[in-house]
């Protein structure tokens, strides 16, 4: 097996790094997140037109570039370095794979080309605020508990028969409290209960941003580069994703979750790498007692430990890009590396690192936000161990592993 990157893959990385250096510095990030959309619309258009970033992993038949998970991961490593605020993750890693997997041919033909060219952004709206559980990253999603339950939990979908007794339309009622890019996405994939209380099951519905009865309120988020919104549906019309209600939604979500984990791991590795580089540059110039603080043995040891941790996380992320089944483990290692590196960056920057205005806190907030949204790391590993059947596949063994791990990493 040849694990070396191709010329085309290296070109994707180089082009994005150069563009990010010109258009996505810390000041650009802070300005973009405070706009109505939460990202630089002109930069997003440039990324779509020049690089085909939103459609990088989509088939050429639907207007995509025709690459795969490896190329998308390499691209997201570079966007993660710059903490690029954009709808890339929600659109390319969550919504697009679900449309491709579950949608009818007509739905794919209508939706994927505008997604690929960047004119349509999309996201996944999950009731209950447990996106990681819905994607099968921290829990088994087959039971549907992540989507709420009972007669009033989550989002409810009801089918209204047409006048001729055939077909009809679906209407949705309920809310999703934490939807990534929910305030700006042009298309929402909403997970909703159907079939009444006794035979309830969860399906996905397409809801346009201009649908009557849809209310979207942007929320205050810890990490402004990952904006979130509260979505309320008040008898809002939706279109069933797929030809009928026999779709394997949990399976499709779990498959999308593996790709999402790879993308998130690559983003976290890029962010950790950049935070480490900035810290190294700082300790080389910051002097104390007449010498650079980077020359002190204790500081060297801390930086060396960080370097090893970031490189190990990068190796795990690259392997997961080749084998997405290991995405959960790679994500656990990457978010730990980012959390540790961001925390050390704040410490080693001294007093300025503790001010919210300093750039180090952009990475610190991203680390905290990623663990809250998609982790924590011990839950990601616990789920991976359960899927792999380690420790005899018993709940007791898996829980013991989680407790031991928490003790080691605390």
Automatic annotation (TrEMBL):
Residue ranges constituting the Acyl-CoA dehydrogenase/oxidase C-terminal domain according to the UniProt record: 262-387
Signal peptide: none
Protein known as: Acyl-CoA dehydrogenase family protein
Cofactor: FAD
Enzyme Commission code: 1.-.-.-
Homology family: Belongs to the acyl-CoA dehydrogenase family.
Species assigned in the record: Streptomyces flavidovirens
Phylogenetic lineage: Bacteria, Bacillati, Actinomycetota, Actinomycetes, Kitasatosporales
Record-linked InterPro entries: Acyl-CoA_Oxase/DH_mid-dom_sf (IPR046373), AcylCo_DH-like_C (IPR036250), AcylCo_DH/oxidase_C (IPR009075), AcylCoA_DH/ox_N (IPR013786), AcylCoA_DH/ox_N_sf (IPR037069), AcylCoA_DH/oxidase_NM_dom_sf (IPR009100), SBP_3_CS (IPR018313)
Domain Acyl-CoA dehydrogenase/oxidase N-terminal: 7-118
Keywords per UniProt: FAD, Flavoprotein, Oxidoreductase, Signal
Lineage top rank: taxon: Bacteria
């Amino acid at each position: 097996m040849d694990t070396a990157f191709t010329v085309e893959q290296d070109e994707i990385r180089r082009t994005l790094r150069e563009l990010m250096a010109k258009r996505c510095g810390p000041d650009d990030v802070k300005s973009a997140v405070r706009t109505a959309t939460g990202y630089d619309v002109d930069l997003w258009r440039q990324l779509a037109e020049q690089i085909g970033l939103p459609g990088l992993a989509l088939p050429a038949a639907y207007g995509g570039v025709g690459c795969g998970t490896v190329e998308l991961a390499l691209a997201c490593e570079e966007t993660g370095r710059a903490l690029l605020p954009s709808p890339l993750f929600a659109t390319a890693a969550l919504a697009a794979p679900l449309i491709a997997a579950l949608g009818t041919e007509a739905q794919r033909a209508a939706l994927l080309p505008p997604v690929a060219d960047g004119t349509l952004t999309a996201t996944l709206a999950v009731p209950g605020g447990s996106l990681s559980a819905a994607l099968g990253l921290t829990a088994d999603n087959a039971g549907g508990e992540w989507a709420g339950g009972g007669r009033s939990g989550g989002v409810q979908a009801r089918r209204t028969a047409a006048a001729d007794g055939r077909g009809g339309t679906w209407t949705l009622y309920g809310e999703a409290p934490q939807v990534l890019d929910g305030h700006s996405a042009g298309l929402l994939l909403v997970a909703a209960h159907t079939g009444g209380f006794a035979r309830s099951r969860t399906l996905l519905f397409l809801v346009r941003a201009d649908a009557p009865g849809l209310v979207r309120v942007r929320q205050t988020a810890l990490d402004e580069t990952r904006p979130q919104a509260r979505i309320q549906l008040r008898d809002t019309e939706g279109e069933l994703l797929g030809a009928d209600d026999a779709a394997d939604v949990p399976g499709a979500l779990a498959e999308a979750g593996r790709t999402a984990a790879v993308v998130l791991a690559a983003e976290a590795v890029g962010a950790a790498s950049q935070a480490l580089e900035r810290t190294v540059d700082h300790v080389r110039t910051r002097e104390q007692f007449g010498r650079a603080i980077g020359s002190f043995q204790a500081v060297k040891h801390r930086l060396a430990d960080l370097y090893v941790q970031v490189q190990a996380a990068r190796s795990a992320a690259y392997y997961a890009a080749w084998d997405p089944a290991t995405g959960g483990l790679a994500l656990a290692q990457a978010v730990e590396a980012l959390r540790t590196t961001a925390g050390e960056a704040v410490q080693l920057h001294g007093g300025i690192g503790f001010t919210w205005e300093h750039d180090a806190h952009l990475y610190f907030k991203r680390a905290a936000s990623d663990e809250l949204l998609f982790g924590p790391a011990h839950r990601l590993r616990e789920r991976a161990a359960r899927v792999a059947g380690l420790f005899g596949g018993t709940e007791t063994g898996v829980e013991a592993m989680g407790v031991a791990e928490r003790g080691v990493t605390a």
